[in-house]
Design brief:
CATH superfamily of the largest domain: Type I PLP-dependent aspartate aminotransferase-like (Major domain)
Strand content: 5-15%
Helix content: 25-40%
Number of helices: 12
Number of strands: 12
CATH topology of the largest domain: Aspartate Aminotransferase, domain 2
Number of domains: 2
Structural class: alpha/beta
CATH class of the largest domain: Alpha Beta
Largest sheet: 7 strands, mixed
Shape: globular
Distance between the termini: 58 Å
Order of helices and strands: HHEHEHEHEHEEEHHHEHEHEEEH
Bound molecules: pyridoxal-5'-phosphate
Length: 387
């Protein structure tokens, strides 16, 4: 299947029909253990589902193919995946460099959980390559952590250039590819060593499962992460793995529609009197537009806007939409709206990762673009009437 296109692989890799019954969809192996033909006589290598389960193998094989990596490992959440990677790589005293607009939960994990075990970190503007070089020069730097596009201001970072800088000091270069998904961006091909995902978002795509994954192109590192997966045990269950695999089959078409809808909404909001700024890489004036056009094959479904009326207007807007539902998370087929400074990014308030309090974030779904545009317009009218 390696010579097939992305959409074909998304539907078929790791998805061979069941040889016993002909079921076109492989069964969900909802089992904790596997009967042995005599001690150690494993059928197909499976022994106990923390160590391995065929439904999880199916998802992992698929994810490795879509990201162009040798191996993938799937976990019970995005943060569980990140944690396993960090534990596999880091020792007390080691140093991690990460973007100053990294996902708040990633910062919390590295700073507070791993920080308590003596791991140091520096946050830096990933768009400032000399600042990145300086941060990487700190003794003991083991990881450069990149997230692009970033959350929620949609900053675009140059993966190829950053990977080169990271490799100069022998660091492992990690890209959180949650926002773009492998349908729009393939960090391993750009020079990164590891891709991490919250599969909860676009890969699952239907807001019905929490999960995470690590994709690695190097067997030695993959063995280490697989050992942590087995030894610490934050694995994805068979049902979660199956739901994620099912979601991935439509990833390519969903990402096209997410991107088209987000572009339409972003263009409509630019210049609106209630809107101070629109952050979407598909807009020609976005500072990362050209880089995104080079590095990605679409601009994705996430955008943020800053409101002229400040925090009050931003909150009122988030509460006034109807098709866009007020909720955390992103990447599902249904549109969501969020107020980062008190929702997704509440944990970084008061730090340099703080999000301006007049910003709201839209996860633009795959409904009809006309309905989404009408919804944001009626919400802006409603709050203008209130002011
Ligand atoms: C949601 C998210 C995570 C964390 O994933 P969970 O599945 O919620 O644990 C990590 N990175 C990004 C960019 C995310 O959006």
């Amino acid at each position: 299947m390696t010579d097939h296109g992305f959409s074909t692989r998304a539907i078929h890799v790791g998805q061979e029909f069941d040889p016993t019954t002909g079921a076109i969809i492989p069964p969900i192996y909802q089992t904790s253990t596997f009967v042995q033909d005599g001690v150690g006589g494993l059928r197909g290598g499976y022994e106990y589902s923390r160590g391995g389960n065929p439904t999880r193998t199916s998802l992992e094989t698929l994810l490795a193919s879509l990201e162009g990596g040798k191996r993938a490992l799937s976990f019970s959440s995005g943060l569980a995946a990140e944690d396993a990677l960090l534990r596999a790589v880091l020792q007390p005293g080691d140093h991690v460099v990460l973007g100053n607009d990294v996902y708040g939960g990633t910062h919390r994990l590295i700073n507070r959980v791993h920080g308590a075990w003596g791991v140091r970190n520096t946050t830096v503007d990933l768009g400032d390559l000399s600042a990145v070089r300086e941060a990487l020069a700190v003794d003991g730097t083991r990881i450069l952590w990149i997230e692009t596009p970033s959350n929620p201001l949609m900053k675009i970072s140059d993966v190829a250039a950053l990977a080169e800088l990271g490799h100069e000091v022998g660091a492992i270069v990690v890209v959180d590819n949650t926002f773009a998904s492998p349908a729009l961006q393939q960090p391993l091909a750009l020079g990164a060593d590891v891709v991490v995902h919250s599969t909860t978002k676009y890969l699952g795509g239907h807001s019905d499962v929490v999960g995470g994954a690590v994709v690695i192109d190097d067997d030695e590192l993959a063995d280490k992460v697989q050992f942590v997966q087995f030894a610490a045990g934050a694995v994805s269950g068979p049902m979660d793995a199956w739901l994620t695999t099912r979601g991935i089959k439509t990833l390519a078409v969903r990402m096209q529609r997410h991107s088209a809808n987000a572009q339409a909404v972003a263009e409509r909001l630019v210049g609106h009197p209630a809107i101070q700024a629109v952050y979407y890489p598909g807009l020609a004036h976005h500072p990362g537009h050209e880089l995104a056009a080079r590095q990605m094959s679409g601009f994705g479904g996430m955008l943020s806007v800053a409101l002229v009326g400040g925090a009050e207007a931003a909150k009122a807007f988030a509460e006034a939409t109807e098709v866009f539902q007020l909720a955390e998370s992103l990447g599902g087929v249904e549109s969501l709206i969020g107020y980062p400074s008190e929702m997704t990014h509440a944990s970084v308030r008061g730090t340099e990762l703080e999000v301006p309090d007049n910003v709201i974030r839209l996860s633009v779904g795959i409904e009809d673009a006309a309905d989404l545009i009408a919804d944001v317009e009626q919400a802006l009218e409603k709050i203008a009437g209130r002011a």
